[in-house]
Amino acid sequence: MKTNKSENNLKELGKDLSKQIKKGKDPSLTFTLRGLTNIVFDKKTKSLSLGNKKLMRTFFNLAHAKKFLQTIEIASVSKNLIKEEKHASLRDAFYQIKRTIPNTKVNIVDEQPESDKAIEDLEVITGLSREQLNFNANKNGSVAGRVVISDKGDTIDWSKLGSGGWSIPSNVEDIKFKKVNAKYILYMEKAAVWERLHEDKFWEKQNCIIISSQGQTTRGIRRLLQRLSEEYKLPIYILTDFDAWGFYIYSVIKYGSIALAHLGSKMTIPTVKFLGITANDIEHYGLNKHLIKLNDKDIARMKQIMDYEWFKDNKDWQEQFKLMKKMGAKAEIQALSSRGISFISEEYLPEKIKKKDFLD
Amino acid sequence: MKTNKSENNLKELGKDLSKQIKKGKDPSLTFTLRGLTNIVFDKKTKSLSLGNKKLMRTFFNLAHAKKFLQTIEIASVSKNLIKEEKHASLRDAFYQIKRTIPNTKVNIVDEQPESDKAIEDLEVITGLSREQLNFNANKNGSVAGRVVISDKGDTIDWSKLGSGGWSIPSNVEDIKFKKVNAKYILYMEKAAVWERLHEDKFWEKQNCIIISSQGQTTRGIRRLLQRLSEEYKLPIYILTDFDAWGFYIYSVIKYGSIALAHLGSKMTIPTVKFLGITANDIEHYGLNKHLIKLNDKDIARMKQIMDYEWFKDNKDWQEQFKLMKKMGAKAEIQALSSRGISFISEEYLPEKIKKKDFLD
Lengths: 360, 360
Prior knowledge:
2 copies of one chain form a homodimer.
Chain A: H1 2-22, E1 28-32, E2 39-42, E3 47-50, E4 54-58, H2 65-84, E5 88-89, H3 90-97, H4 112-126, E6 135-136, E7 142-144, E8 147-151, E9 154-157, E10 166-167, E11 176-180, E12 184-188, H5 191-199, H6 202-206, E13 208-212, H7 219-232, E14 236-239, H8 244-255, E15 273-276, H9 279-284, E16 292-293, H10 296-306, H11 309-312, H12 315-327, E17 329-330, H13 343-354
Parallel strand pairs in A: 5-6, 12-13, 12-14, 14-15
Antiparallel strand pairs in A: 1-4, 2-3, 7-10, 7-13, 8-9, 8-11, 16-17
């Protein structure tokens, strides 16, 4: 299904261009402008999105010609990948179109950001996500829970994968959920915390799904969260450090990011909630002794985040930012280990979830 | 088995100390000195190891007291973990012993490097690895192949895990191999390359095991490689970029590192071979157009690596370094994608492996 839709969109694009050429026209592509001047916060979908400004790129324009060519080259790579049922990383895509234009000394691309941008352009032009164009981002993260999926002909039970769990692929568009038995999803930024919860059989006792990456959330993980949220209406709770980077992880999952604004609500999950660590947790769970003083980078990043449109009018979040400023400190999830190695899975998380003590 | 051995070692340590205290002695710990002045390249095991210098740490010595206490605290955390059959990350361990000594303003530890060092000391004192003391490093990486393991009561077939593969845990000491059907192991530094080979069913066609991390090899992966190498005599081939960081990944797996010299041959695999990318590959597979100019950092790192004891007298490696210098450039694995998206799995790897075109 997905493949056909993608292939058809690309064929349409090709047909349209060849029609223009046959008519003797200067071939052109018209699409929504990406870039800061055209990014808006869509209050209806609660996602960073592109506005209405359009861009026309024409081939016989010195300033456009190279980008035009790059976009078409990437479209051609994508079409071949879809036809061959293969996927390429962004780096692969770069090397696939990197070559010298015959009889010139000009390379189609010199650096990867050029092919990356061409892929983003193609996303806007076709209305397809990078994954649907068979370009994959980085792979990272693990998952465990009472879920059975079918993927590439294999049936995989996420509850029977020992201490490792299932390794989340970069592209989850084609996996099929066969059984999903869970009340909620807990997503955490740290693999070490995931291992703690997994060893404590947290997902078994709490009937939930646990997912982690290491640091920023990959697109594969975001799509996995989104699919489970949409297809099974599962609530998602986010567990990060009490610091600007943790808040940003939450913010990107919930509202999107500037880099991905052209995908709008396709990659955002407006229903996710922030579980912790919160300023109140620090008091309530006696973590005061384990605060870490904010450094200049922390403070600068906090200032940016406080001003995000969706945080600006949010009283609860502004309260968090104020408390952080007052403490002049951040705190890590693992500070909970000072209360005992399984305090997080036996006390902290069950209590927070039972009380629905979340930030929205 | 493992648990008992670890627990016994720690009990012995405790008994010995309490005996000293009961006798009215100043309690002391004697162990092999870690640090640059006592690191040697053991030519027999071909591993970076510690020399013969000893260190005595006594409690009633102002310069030693705190470190003494830290080591004993860590030993106590380890003993509890083993008893409860739980594992802690290094960060958890830090928070577990981080507290103020009663009636003082002194913390047992202020920064994680202190608890990390205490764990390393305990490794030297007890002769046990961090994993055997139930301290885990970071989790990363995926694996696929015709292997069936048993782990935490689950039976896991690495050949039936869809596009994701098995997510490698930080600690593989307790997994049991039930079936291993492979001719060799291919370990690669990049997750994107792993996804390429996995999609191409490389492990199925070539009857091998494919393992990747992202960047530096985690301890979990190194132990997994080592166990498969020792228990099943599987050859291991390393696939990295043609650059100083790639060579270093190979070097650490094969010969060890300064940071882990106290573990000597426990973490090294002297039989691993470097498959590529080599300088000769660049010529042979037409990658010259995809060379990336060396920057100052590359050059500085190369100078260090060229001088490693095991590379210094190795003609083949010196030839590689010379060729790199001559080209003034490095190259990435993914440059092979310029020859076609599956060139790596259909041509490059099968040919290199068939010809046994490795560096040792």
